[in-house]
Queue: 2 jobs
Job 1
Amino acid sequence: MIGTGIKKGTAELAILSVLQDGPLHGYELSRRIEAQTKGSLSFSLAALYPMLYRMEQRRWIRGTWETSSNGRRRRCYRLTPQGKKKLQPLRAEWLELFSALRRLTKVSNA
Amino acid sequence: MHDWRLLVQQRLAGLLIEDGEATQVVEELAGHLEESYQSLLRDGLSEEIAARRALERVNDWQDLKRKLESSRNKETIVNKRVAQFWFPAFVTLALSMVLLAVIQIFGPSPWIGPMPAGRLRMAPVLPVYVSWLIFLPFIGALAAYLSRRAGGRTLAVFSSVVFPVFPYVAFFVIGLPLALILDDHVARNLTLPMFFMGLCAWVIFPAAALLAGGVPAHYFSGRLDARTTSDG
């Protein structure tokens, strides 16, 4: 299980990466992240929505209200051009961190 | 059928963000809980268990409220402190001082009667003082209500409840020791029993009276919140 500190740091990367595949609303976004990380990353509401609102303020993502086929109003988040720009250096930073840790702990890929 | 919107609205009551935004946040979170609940129902869980599981996505509503406020509004920290502590604290202070003045002007007159000399030196002002103490629990309850309504936690609630005694505490802790050092007259006339009598009369008893109203108001409003949200 991944610790809280690292989870917090990776949350932005996780959200941006998942939104890269297309717009999603909060519930679906959290489900995707949980499924794709096999439960290692899971968001409570207190973690997810404040994070989404903060990212929206930074203009990395944009939320718009949409009405689904069953008439339910949902707020869908999509990546903005600024968010796309942010994703690349974030990915590079985390890759660098993981490879540094791998070298440090001498954990092999195998 | 669960009214998730009502439930979220109740649990996030007093959310310090702009009205329009608060409505949107409530709608969005309610939508999340509804989807979570529906998904659990599709997995074959009973309505009761599905609702409980969906609610488990929020461990602490106060924590969620705080995080939402800080993420949506940069000025919220100051606003929150004002609403949860400073406003109720100054209301309590002002009311308790005004009350004391009103009782002195319109209330019972101080006794002047046969009292054994040397005993109960405070006795002549007792009618004024006791009348004041009797009303303090109501002021304490009001402070607790105001602070709690703004989402104040226990420390903020109780600090605002006992705020009127803070100036007296400052006097006894700082002012009086300084006067003892700097003024011979005070040092010669102040005795230990007088010091404790003053401390009790202006700090301990008023604080106890304010808390006598503030503590029940705090816990009663907490229970009321829990009951209304569980009903939702």
Job 2
Amino acid sequence: MPGFITNYLDNSVHVTPGQYGSPFWALVYILIVFGGVSLAVVCMNWLERKILAHMQVRLGPMRVGPHGLLQPIADALKLILKEDIIPEGADRFVFWLAPLIILLAVFSVYTVIPFGPTHAITDMNIGILFMLGVSSLSVLGIVMAGWASNSHYPLIGALRSSAQMVSYEVAMGLAVISAILMTSLNDSGTGTLSMIGIVQAQFAQHTWFIFKFFPLGLIAFFIFAVAMVAETNRAPFDLPEAESELTAGFHTEYSGLRWSLFMLGEYAAMIAVSSIAITLWLGGWMRPFPNLLSGATWDLAFSFFPALTFFAIAGLTFYSTMRMPKHPFFKIQTIGLGAFGAVFVLIGLILLIPQVRSEIQDIYWFIAKIAVFMYLYIWYRGTFPRYRFDQLMKVGWKILLPMGIGVLMATGIVALRVEIWDFVRQMI
Amino acid sequence: MQPVATTFFFYLLSGLAVGSGVLVITRKNPVHSALALILTLLSLAGLYLMLYAPFVAGVQIILYVGGIMVLFLFVIMLVNLERSLKEKQFNQQWIAGVVAAVALGALFIAIYIKGHDLFPMPMKPVLETQNTQRIGEMLYSSYMFPFEIASLLLLVAIIGAVVMAKKRI
């Protein structure tokens, strides 16, 4: 094999392909991450409809495939084949550009998300700044889409969206700063903005930042968790696309493939902001209790979790297979569901191979944490009624922002308590 | 790792900046102008990256592209565009404009020819991993006073905006 492929596979390399300077492996990582995110969005589509349906005591999609498992594929086909309409009087160029800008902004963020100490496309020393900056670009896409449609509902949706996102970015930034402040509590006294560096700082300080300086880390995380939902325009903050008032908000005039790009962007953005929260407060790729329950035995025990998860999903699938109606009409669906279960068992078995098991650890814990956040997003949508716009602004500016400033100052004071105490004693 | 700050990227980014800068003043539709301005600011962020100043590039994107330009667009969209598009555009200050442009061009050419004596020799760039730390140390030590003055100015601007916008406080 040529050198540019093999040199990164050397066991002595412990950096991401971007830092190592290997364009080939960076490209491979980019393809894996982008493909994985697109697949996750497809799964999210099915899960959201199914979970929401069960929360409302409905069945949800049941017709296409067993338990509607093939529904996302049918949806995707439908969206690709649908006629692509550009409304009369729309600004064609801006109309065409808007979904692309959203996708570009959202997917660029994934270049710095650390799925493991070496499993990231690259590590930047301004990682978190890059993520916040680039993800704030997606509001441009929304504003452009709303304006270019040359219609009233999209324009109002876009204006709401930009006001909302700009307001919540402030509180979000303050919460992020208080977490970054915590990374500087080491011997050298310098913090880091690099995503990998932030997780390593949590490992070095033997705690996730959500539990640091209790309850300061928890409050900062709470502010971020609320602002994160507002940033991604999800319920209960989905004013920009409130269907009872604005039809579909900024993407009312979009149809077919372009509309599906907006949906892809929205779900990918949800995953991206969740991974910011995970990296900053929930220990990134670290498994639970990496310091308390350390040692070879615990490592081995925790390394079975990925396979066990898949076996659990497979068990659930087989249970549903048994409960399928016995009527011959459902024969193909029953076989299909059994095949799904078999695939999950196969994946679980692959994850039991020792080499795979050790490699997949970090990625598994990161994705498991993302999955919790994704479930929370759906749960919010099923639980909370939508805010009114003035209430939304009030929450952002009058509650979250003062809380953010307070937490930031308190974190600074607690972090420097020894120095402050020395200073006070000298003054006296 | 290999430096990416090559001449090719410099010309690409500066070409983008100048080209979209020209678009900003030639487009008739203010929204298109604002979008072109965003492209200019983004390519400037790329140029900061090439100067080994990643922090400045990141802040440029967050503040100018994500914050200020969104508000620009916000305001432009609220203005009635249909009427301004139909109005005939005119310009009565073209003499002053030409004089200023010629003066600026002459200055650029003069610096290009005699610039070696005017400016100090290029310094070895600071390691880009230390860029953020350096900026922080400078802001809170030698440039503390100007930094605080600037934040005071911003505070005055905020209070002024509130006073002007709200009739009864």
